[in-house]
Amino acid sequence: MTQTVIAILILAVAVIYVARKTINAIAPKKTPCGCSGCGCGGKKKAEEA
Amino acid sequence: MTDITTTFDDNCPKSIALVGNPNCGKTTLFNGLTGSRYKVANYPGVTVERKEGSLSLPHGSCARIVDLPGTYALVGSSVDEKIVTQFLRGELAGNSKPDLIVAVVDATNLERNLFLISELIDTGYPIVLAINMMDAAERAGIKIYAELLSRALDLPVVPITARSKSGFPSLLQAITKALETPSPSSKRLGWIAQEHPLRRAIEDQSPLGPASSDPHIITTIGSLRYAWIRSVVRKTTSQSSNDDIPVVSPLDRLLTSRIWGLPIMLGIFGLIFQAIFLWAQLPMEIISGAVDSLSAWATSALPPGILTSLIAEGIIPGVGNVIVFVPQIAILFFCIGFLEDSGYLSRAAFLLDNFMRKVGLQGRAFIPLLSSFACAVPGILSTRSIPTRSDRLATIMIAPLMSCSARLPVYAVLIAAFIPPTLVGGFVSLQGLVLLGMYLLGVVGACVVAWALKKCLLWKESCFYVMEMPPLRKPILRIILRGVYDSVASFLKNATTIILACSIIVWFLASYPKPEAGYQGNPVQASYAGQLGTAIEPAIKPLGFNWEIGIAILSSFPAREVFVTTLSTIYNIGDDDDEHTGLVKTLQERNQSGLFSTLTALSLMVFYVFACMCMSTLAVCKRETDSWGWTLGMFGYMTALAYVASFAVFQVGSLILK
Question: For B89-115, what is the mean pLDDT?
Fold first, then answer.
């Protein structure tokens, strides 16, 4: 029973990981500053403003 | 389009821009100053996006330093060149104008490099001039009088050798002083006389604005700048009249020879593929043995159950059979690093330039295509250096046809299992030849597709391109090993993230639902994965593939290496015995029992040469082309090409073998 629960948990994590990777590849998240993946997360734009 | 990689400290208020011509050593200097490990190579166009780091200055202060792509002038037309002007104008998101420019010039090409410096002086920014590659200049008999140059340009001038970090303390002092008391050069527009008729118009024009479209004005400005630069260089440098230093070395002449150049290039790449199989054999056998032992140990030591099955039949063989290829990846990248750092790859580009132009590609496409042998993602990003949209699109569309490192495990496992390790002519490994053949097939396919695209779909745009030939030099082992480490680390990261996750999902899909009691066939065929594989089998049967291979192909869409993982998992679950053998041995056993023929293996390799089984490549294609049409077009044409080529190999091969 314990083995089954752990295996299901591991499987769930793997499915979520692959799903997130796929979604990020198809539609990458935009940062608040409007740029795509600049790494600043809109912080600099906010500071400048 | 203007990505930035950030490793900077938010507490550093001042920012510095590293600007210079391509291949003058900006990234080497950036790495040396910030302790970063960005890719450097002895050819132009390696940096196509800006990178930031934190620079510790004397007296405990710090500054943000930005490494910009190389450019010959401030009016560049390609995406990467435009980044430089946009950055200096303070127009890039997340960045204001820099406080200081550290202009890097190549000491062996001072005259040409000073053209950009004269433009930078006109911008009014405070500048520190770093003259890089002083060691190479010394060897070439060039003497640069830094003090005189500093006075002529009215800038702080520091001679350095970035590769050996020589001159760094003086450079840091000069940067600190320039940040504390910034003073622009007084030589702004020093290249044009006060009474010159164009002076007024140029004074009114912004140095970072669009260039004049009048060819007469462009030519006049160029001539005036170069006349001024030549007078500066004459006063501040001297060249020894040593006849022992040839302009073109005999080795260079041989490597770029019309007769010997191509055979030498083929010989070099042939040797690399030989080495991949011969040198990697022993470490691969050791890793493979360790994976088998670990799998067997897990089966015997852990209590029977689902978790044990997941570990012993899913995770360990799945990930382990990919990790086995680390030695081959390391050897491949060691050899490529050696050629990169020596400057040979620019010679290879020179040799292939004529051919590339015949298929409709321009010289700048060589570097993106070369980068794609490691991974298509940086390859596609490198196309930013191509100024014309049609040439850039053509290069993006064919970049994934270059065999990337993710294909290597697929080729290697099939070659090791089905191609005998015999020596052709007593010294050439047949396995190495087949591997070289797969890489060449991708290149030939890319040329045909590029030619077809330019003929039928994309328009012709004329573009002037001069390729810079970097000097041939002794490669630095530290730089090569760093490249090997980065490639292996990236491969292992993939193995322990996406490949691990995929192997867990594949294990589940290949294990459930369990077959009903009394089921006689392969238990995997009754599973979800088996049902899916059986459903697509009619479509892939003409290629020589069965339902098991069908599952492996479908599952390898997130990453090609997952093909190896899936086959390992399927065969491990399907085997009745508890004995764990490597994938190569399992495939050889299947070959002997007629379940997996050599022709199927060849057809499969050809399929992977052309198929676009990579989610990341499609994602970066969408980002760079900003079009779903081109992205789906890439996936569609590559899948069709893979199907047709694989079909031809299997059907023609079957006819011949009949």
Answer: 88
Provide the domain limits for residue A11: 2-48
Band of the pLDDT at B44, cuts 50, 70, 90? low
Burial of B539 (0-12, 13-18, 19+ CB in 10 A): exposed
| H or E stretch covering B239 | strand B237-239
Residue B233 and residue B281 in one domain: no
Domain that holds residue B297: 266-459+476-657
Q: How many CB atoms lie within 10 A of CB B44?
A: 22
* Residues B93, A45: C-beta atoms closer than 8 Å: yes
In chain B, DSSP finds a helix count (H) and a strand count (E) of: 29, 11
Q: Is the pLDDT of residue A49 over 50?
A: no
Closest CA to B615 of B629, B600, B597, B634: B634
Distance (Å) from the C-alpha of residue A17 to the closest C-alpha of chain B?
7
Looking at the structure, do residues B545 and B632 belong to the same domain, yes or no?
yes
pLDDT value for B248: 60
Is residue B470 a part of any domain in this protein?
no
Which two structure tokens, joined as six digits, stand for B371?
């980068």
DSSP B12-63: --EEEEEEE-TTSSHHHHHHHHH-------SSTT---SEEEEEEEPGGG-EE
Q: Kindly report the number of other CB atoms within 10 A of residue B258's CB atom.
A: 8
Query: What is the per-residue pLDDT for B462?
Result: 57
Q: How far apart are CA B237 and CA B149, in angstroms?
A: 8
d(CA A44, nearest CA chain B) in Å: 5
Closest CA to B487 of B383, B406, B557: B406
Nearest 5°: the CA angle B562, B620, B24 is 110
CB-based contact, A3 to chain B, within 8 Å? yes
Q: Does ipTM top 0.90?
A: no
